[in-house]
Design a protein that fits this description.
heterodimer, A: alpha/beta, Aminopeptidase, 2 domains, eight-stranded mixed beta sheet, two-stranded antiparallel ribbon, B: alpha/beta, 7 strands, about 15% strand, elongated
């Protein structure tokens, strides 16, 4: 036995590392707490609309704000891609501050909940970031992966055709775990499709009139600070509403434009939910430097302060079209942009549909949010 | 005994290497982030213009000097009824519609108007800019859109209506079809409103100068509000 002691020590050390890694991996399943808001009416689970999600890691909370007054219904999606932090933080900030006066608002902060339980280690992505609140307390949020955790859905099929007709082949095979490629979902499909089906069914069952899907993208993308609008028979009205929102944002000094959803953008929320539901679908992306291949050291400064000199240099040298700010694009500004977009979108929708108006307060203006910062927008957790 | 263990470990190592390389080539899933980075959530790109190919040219407008007008505008030309339409079905027409609402004047808006629809209008404002997505959404082919545009210009000529050429989508609205439609409108217009970054090759200012047409260069799309407020109010 004595001659094997070295082997045993090596095995024990390996076991220790495995245990520590497992604890860290499992800790990703502990989700962020949300501060109470007295205006919140109800918290449902998405499995109410997609029974196949019940008991899975993808079943996720749906926060419902019902004014009790007649009006339209809006759905806000955050965390469709868990590495696009502004979407989730915007959704959580909305839940903690919203006061609905007319109509109803449904909010899903962790749309791909399973995606929040793992990271992208090969991208050097860190798994959490922190925000210090005005009372000195610290709130920590996860940075997940844009795809469903393979622990929950595996293997990725080498060929798959979703309900939209989008074919996932070759390098796009992993997208079978991407919520924003599998709309309008399938009741008994793969786990990610069941999430999509839940949202599709929620829109139909609750009569959602207006949907915003909040995203972020790396600076190389063409459509940053742009709202995509569904194509369908009444698209003229939808585009009119979105244009009104965009002009309001522009008049506030914020870049914003609108585009029609692409003809071949099958499986994406703005296209396939637009095609298959009555809701007006929109999707907006803000610039997140931590998502691009040029990013440097991955830390809170990059995620929270959005400061990446490499992208500023790339823009100045003509390689990046997006006007990268010299001092970064902080998470507070990205969240403020999403919330301003939501507010103006609801306002424009209400002007065009006065009998189905969606009226709410509590989110504040862009300048208010940026000035006060996320430390004041997010509430302390008791 | 020790030798046997070493040999077994070496074999295990070889099997391990073998299985690692197999699973990589078979599934290619660990690199999920690589293809993902190339597939934005906004979907497919719709522009003949390469946004990463920036063109350096000296702009007359800036964040501080938002509108620059070259030439004299005769505001009395632009009488009601006013009609707003699109040539190219880009989202700029919807934006122009929103702008006109903010200006607060009476007008008719129909992005797919026919020559008959605009007949009798004294002022026709045309949002120029082609979008394959917009054409697809409207269910119109490029050839049909060009034919519609020609018919409208013919009607305008017959009516003697005033035409304002409105190119407010910037450089992303430059391309073969957009330029063809812009040329068609500019030939008959009495005023041009242009988001200046689209003028990187001086196409619009050269035409305006050669034909003595007033042109307002705007720094951003939102500046259309102040331009039209000045014209119509």
């Amino acid at each position: 036995m004595k001659e094997y002691w070295k082997n045993i020590v090596v095995l024990l050390i390996a076991l220790l590392f495995a245990v520590l890694a497992s604890i860290d991996f499992i800790s990703m399943q502990v989700q962020e707490k949300i501060a109470p808001n007295q205006n919140l009416t109800e918290v449902k689970m998405l499995s109410c609309y997609s029974p196949g999600l019940k008991g899975t890691d993808s079943d996720t909370e749906v926060y419902v704000f019902d004014s009790g007054n007649p009006g339209g219904t809006m759905l806000i999606l955050g965390g469709t891609h868990p590495n696009e932090s502004a979407g989730m933080v915007s959704a959580i900030a909305t839940i903690e501050n919203l006061e609905v006066e007319r109509g109803r608002v449904f909010i899903i902060p962790w749309t791909n909940k399973s995606g929040f339980t793992h990271t992208s280690p090969l991208d050097g992505m860190q798994d959490r970031f922190s925000i210090t609140l005005s009372d000195g307390s610290i709130r920590t949020f996860r940075v997940g992966n844009r795809l469903t955790n393979p622990v929950d859905q595996w293997p990725d099929r080498t060929y798959y055709e979703g309900t939209s007709g989008r074919k996932l082949i070759g390098s796009e095979s992993p997208e079978i775990r991407n919520v924003n490629r599998l709309y309008y979902g399938k009741e008994n499909g793969v786990l990610t499709e069941r999430v999509c089906y839940g949202i599709y069914n929620l829109i139909n069952a609750e009569g959602v009139d207006l949907t915003m899907d909040m995203h972020e993208g790396s600076p190389e993308f063409l459509y940053l600070d742009c709202t995509m609008v569904n194509q369908k028979a009444d698209n003229e009205k939808a585009m009119s509403i979105a244009s009104s929102m965009a002009l309001s944002m522009q008049l506030d000094g914020l870049d914003m434009r609108t585009e029609y959803s692409g003809k071949s953008s099958y499986g994406l929320s703005h296209r396939s939910l637009g095609d298959n539901t009555a809701s007006m679908m929109t999707l907006m992306e803000t610039y997140n430097p931590s998502m691009g291949p040029l990013h440097g050291k991955m830390d809170d400064d990059l995620i929270v302060n959005g400061n990446e000199p490499n992208y500023y240099q790339a823009h100045n040298e003509g390689y990046i079209y997006f006007d990268v700010p010299e001092n970064g694009y902080p998470l507070a500004e990205r969240v403020a942009r999403h919330l301003t977009c939501i507010s103006y979108l609801a306002q424009s929708y209400s002007e065009a549909n006065p009998h189905d108006a969606i009226v709410f307060e509590g989110l504040g203006s862009y300048d208010d949010i940026v000035e006060k910062g996320l430390g004041n927008l997010l509430k302390p957790i008791d | 005994m020790k030798k046997i263990i070493v040999v077994l470990l070496a074999i295990a190592l070889l099997i391990g290497f073998g299985s690692c390389s197999k699973s990589e080539s078979k599934a290619a899933t660990p690199a999920a982030a690589a293809p993902a980075a190339n597939t934005p959530s906004t979907g497919t790109v719709d522009s003949e213009y390469d946004p990463n190919a920036t063109v350096d040219f000296e702009m007359k407008t800036s964040a501080d000097k938002r509108v620059v007008t070259i030439g004299e505008i005769d505001k009395s030309l632009y009488q009601s009824p006013i009609f707003v339409t699109s040539f190219g079905q880009s989202t700029d027409a919807a934006m122009l519609d929103t702008v006109m609402k903010r200006v607060g004047i009476d007008y008719h808006y129909n992005p797919t108007a026919t020559a008959d629809d605009i007949a009798g209008s004294k002022t026709v404002i045309i949002a120029v800019g082609a979008s394959t997505k917009g054409l697809g959404a409207a269910g119109i082919s490029e050839a049909d859109e060009t034919a519609r545009a020609k018919a409208i210009m013919k009607q305008i000529k017959a009516d003697g209506s005033q035409v304002i050429c409105c190119h407010i989508g910037g450089s992303s609205r430059r391309g073969a079809l957009s330029d063809e439609l812009a040329d068609m409108v500019m030939k008959q217009c009495s005023y041009i409103v242009l988001k200046e970054d689209a003028n990187f090759d001086s196409k619009f200012t050269d035409f305006a100068s050669a034909h003595n047409i007033p042109i307002s260069l705007i720094f951003a799309t939102k500046d259309t509000v102040s331009v039209f407020t000045d014209i119509f109010k």
